Amino acid sequence: MTETNTWLITGANRGIGLELTRQLLTVPTNIVVATCRNPNGATELRALKDAAQGTLHIAPIDVSSEGSIKNSVSIVQEALGEGGIDILYNNAAINEEDDVPSNAKPEVFLRTIQVNVVGPMLLYQAYLPLLEKGKKMVVNMSSGLASIGLNHGGKCTSYSISKTALNMLTYKMTKERPNFTAIVLDPGWVKTEMGGEGAQLEPEYSVSHIIKLITSLKNEDSGKFFTYAGNIIPW
Ligand SMILES: NC(=O)c1ccc[n+]([C@@H]2O[C@H](COP(=O)([O-])OP(=O)(O)OC[C@H]3O[C@@H](n4cnc5c(N)ncnc54)[C@H](OP(=O)(O)O)[C@@H]3O)[C@@H](O)[C@H]2O)c1
Question: Which terms are listed as keywords in the entry (predicted)?
Fold first, then answer.
């Protein structure tokens, strides 16, 4: 894709979000609004500005805070001028504990739902006017653990439930707005703080495939659950 694309990414200070921002900025026509909780402490993200061929804007968003999400809109709008957002990339998430149904803690469960589900929903709501001005794409970062069909067992109960709920939220988005292209995506098992050192994939590898997939999406792909490599995952 050589035309201009404007991306808004959450959790862009480390892990997959940082790598996604880095790779997107190698393309001069990309405009990336990279958001994170604490831009001042986001040393690696800020350093991307030096080598960037695309345009980088950094804005503060804590996805667990409705106020933070709402406050960010005017900051982003000012940075983009008249332009809209083409792709809202809900990447930020937490997976605090490898819990099972018999020991899952309500406070962990609720925090996980707040960050992983309510956050993406509020971002979608807050950024609808800017998304309406763009290509109307929403990418919600899910996980293979969200799939009942893949039968991953009892581990990571709170996290898995949150990602299954995110999948349903995405389905609802596509039904409410058929002119939007909204998908859920499993990046694979990736070497980040969340994925751990033992993970299978380097962030560079997963992200290069993710970009290829997203930049070739069509409206008929809306509502699908993809792997990073573009294969369909069972719900
Ligand atoms: N790595 C894997 O193997 C894997 C597998 C399947 C799915 N995923 C999904 O891929 C996405 C990225 O994961 P990752 O591996 O890059 O995870 P990661 O290395 O743990 O990074 C998580 C990112 O989310 C941010 N974040 C957490 N809470 C936030 C909040 N309240 N507000 C704003 N940002 C917040 C973190 O920012 P702070 O630095 O401020 O905490 C960080 O930037 C997630 O949606 C994850 O569920 C990852």
Answer: NADP, Oxidoreductase
* Nearest atom, ligand 1, residue 16 CA: 16
Task: Give the CA radius of gyration of the chain.
Answer: 17
Q: Which of 47, 74, 44 is nearest to 60 (CA)?
A: 74
Q: Is residue 78 part of a domain?
A: yes
Distance 195 CA to ligand 1 centre (A): 9
If 0-12 CB within 10 Å is exposed, 13-18 middle and 19+ buried, where does residue 69 land?
buried
Please work out whether the CB of residue 213 comes within 6 Å of at least one atom of ligand 1.
no
Q: Is residue 234 part of a domain?
A: no
Q: What is the pLDDT along the chain (235 residues), one digit of tens a residue?
A: 468 999 999 999 999 999 999 999 999 999 999 999 999 999 999 999 999 999 999 999 999 999 999 999 999 999 999 999 999 999 999 999 999 999 999 999 999 999 999 999 999 999 999 999 999 999 999 999 999 999 999 999 999 999 999 999 999 999 999 999 999 999 999 999 999 999 999 999 999 999 999 999 999 999 999 999 999 999 9
From 9, 10, 16, 94, mutation site for ligand 1 pocket: most ligand atoms within 8 A of C-beta: 16
Domain total in the chain: 1
If one residue of 68, 114, 115, 192 were mutated to test the ligand 1 pocket, choosing by the most ligand atoms within 8 A of its CB, it would be: 192
Cα 124 from chain centroid (whole Å): 11
Q: Which domain holds residue 79?
A: 5-227
In a domain, 53, yes or no: yes
**Residue 117 near residue 172, CB atoms below 8 Å:** no
